[in-house]
Amino acid sequence: MSNILKIVLNRAGIVPRHFSTAVAATNTATTPTTPGSDLSDEPVNIRNPYKQERKLCILCRMKIHPDYKNVRLLSQFQSPYTGRIYGRHITGLCKAKHDLVQREIFKSQNSGFMGTYTKSVDFTHDPRLFDPERPMRPHKY
Ligand SMILES: [Zn+2]
């Protein structure tokens, strides 16, 4: 900024919008700030607020390993009306756990612990992990 312009700005006492305020601030006498004080404009190291949290499915979060003998757990991923295994858009499971659950359900059905077309009546009043009518992820059907 030229000296003439500074003099003009000081006389007028106003700062036009298109001038940066940082330059104008140097004209006014301010108290010197140290980097440690609250008034300093030094960047502060903080956690990135825009970083997305890693999403874990319910089995990964609770560290549950499905087993073919745990019929109560496996039956929660089965429809009580048709015996169909719910898809990932309904259960919200990750691919690895979904494949594991599916494999364990087939193993359990072949062993005779679980029904193929029905769910055991003992487990009908178990709390539901998800609502099949309102899927967690949208799907194209
Ligand atoms: Zn998972």
UniProtKB/TrEMBL annotation:
The keyword Ribosomal protein applies. GO terms for biological process: mitochondrial translation. It comes from Pseudolycoriella hygida. InterPro entries: Ribosomal_bS18, Ribosomal_bS18_sf. Belongs to the bacterial ribosomal protein bS18 family. Keywords: Ribonucleoprotein, Ribosomal protein. Gene3D superfamilies: Ribosomal protein S18. The gene is MRPS18C. This is 28S ribosomal protein S18c, mitochondrial. The keyword Ribosomal protein applies. It holds the Pfam family Ribosomal_S18. The lineage of its organism: Eukaryota, Metazoa, Ecdysozoa, Arthropoda, Hexapoda. One of its GO terms (molecular function) is small ribosomal subunit rRNA binding. GO terms for cellular component: mitochondrial small ribosomal subunit.
